[in-house]
Write a structure and sequence with these properties.
Structural class: alpha/beta
CATH topology of the largest domain: D-Maltodextrin-Binding Protein, domain 2
Number of domains: 2
Radius of gyration: 19 Å
CATH architecture of the largest domain: 3-Layer(aba) Sandwich
CATH superfamily of the largest domain: Periplasmic binding protein-like II
Order of helices and strands: HHEEHEHEHEEHHEHEHEEHHEHEHH
Helix content: 25-40%
């Protein structure tokens, strides 16, 4: 499939309600620098016991979107007077940190398995995914980020293993995005009619072309921006983020790719559960979903998704985590540290 840049739809959006939302987003983004919201890579500040304060712990890529969403929510009656501490990083690391005691009121991870870890630890309710959207706040897909103009003519998964092609992908031990990349690569082979053995052989060949594995998707993007690699496997939202910030890249939607679904929930030990739940619910409003869309994420609210549809081209074949039996089965099959397919592919 040809390069799929985010078109001018994002600026034009639609008239009426969503047009007003775009203006509100701009106001919110401007207000962010002077609001009581604070962004911290270390998650400084405790969420428990402090009236009017929430701590958001999230994976690395939605930080810019939250920098716009939080000020908008703070302008609502429920959010007025609420300050924020924020922590962004590799999804697996963030999940493990919360399980180990990092304060959090609201969590947003890259994979369902990172949320399951907190459910097992009693830090997130087992019913976290019982709402209309099954706890998923945004969608994305795995794409190929390439050098501007796509000089190596990368179009398909087979092209990634051509002689002389170097590939970047984050480390699947720490990064949820990396796990999506692995499943996208493997699943694409199955969708082409190949056997599981052939898909595993492809994955092993692909890792022979991988030169750098950073901790997170955002770090991998920085490494690519600094000149390493011919192709970066990444979220579509990261490709859009890079283009919006003037990074000279192109990106390709492969013919077969996976639907990335990122979950969010309120923790059971939140010091401000009412405010935390209100903020979480706000993420599914048309206002917040429009902000996510403007920052490169595919909306999960149907009306907003429809409004932004032309900005998000559909792959020829889009599959989901259900192809692998869900996250529990995928973790065992692919990411078990001793017997998983990834360990074998990297040997």
């Amino acid at each position: 499939m040809a390069q799929a840049p985010l078109r001018s739809t994002r600026r034009r959006v639609v008239s009426g309600v969503l047009g007003a939302l775009v203006a509100a987003v701009a106001v919110g983004a401007t207000a962010c620098g002077s609001s009581s919201s604070s962004a911290s890579s270390t998650g400084a500040g405790s969420s428990t016991g402090g009236s009017g304060k929430l701590t958001l712990v999230a994976y690395s890529t939605p930080q810019a979107a939250y920098n716009a969403i939080i000020p908008l929510w703070q302008k609502t009656a429920a959010g007025a007077g609420t300050s924020f501490a924020e922590s962004y990083g590799a999804s697996g690391d963030q999940s493990r940190a919360v399980a180990a005691g990092l304060p959090a009121d609201v969590v947003n991870f890259a994979t369902g398995s990172d949320m399951t870890r907190l459910v097992k630890a009693g830090l997130v309710s087992s019913t976290w995914n019982s709402n209309t959207y099954k706890g998923i706040v945004t969608d994305s897909i795995v794409v190929f980020i390439v050098r501007k103009g796509n000089p190596k003519h990368i179009q398909t998964w087979a092209d990634l293993t051509n002689p002389g092609v170097t590939v970047l992908t984050p480390n699947p031990i720490t990064s949820g995005g990396a796990r999506w990349n692995v499943l996208a690569a493997y699943g694409a082979q199955l969708e082409q009619g190949k056997t599981p053995a052939e898909a595993q052989a492809y994955l092993k060949n692909l890792f022979h072309h991988v030169t750098v594995q950073d901790k997170s998707a955002r770090q991998a993007l920085t490494t690519f921006q600094n000149g390493q690699g011919d192709v970066l496997l990444d979220y579509e939202s990261e490709a859009i983020f890079a283009r919006q910030h003037g990074v000279p890249i192109s990106y390709v939607i492969p013919p077969q790719t996976i639907l990335i679904q990122t979950p969010a929930a309120v923790t059971t030990n939140s010091g401000n559960p009412t405010k935390a739940k209100d903020f979480l619910n706000y993420l599914w409003t048309s206002q917040a979903q429009a902000v996510f869309a403007l920052h490169g994420f595919r909306p999960v609210v149907p009306s907003v998704a429809t409004a932004f549809a032309s900005g998000f081209p559909q792959p020829q074949k889009l599959f989901t985590i259900t192809l692998f039996g869900g996250w529990s089965a995928a973790n065992t099959t692919f990411f078990d540290p001793t017997s998983g397919i990834v360990v074998k592919a990297q040997q």
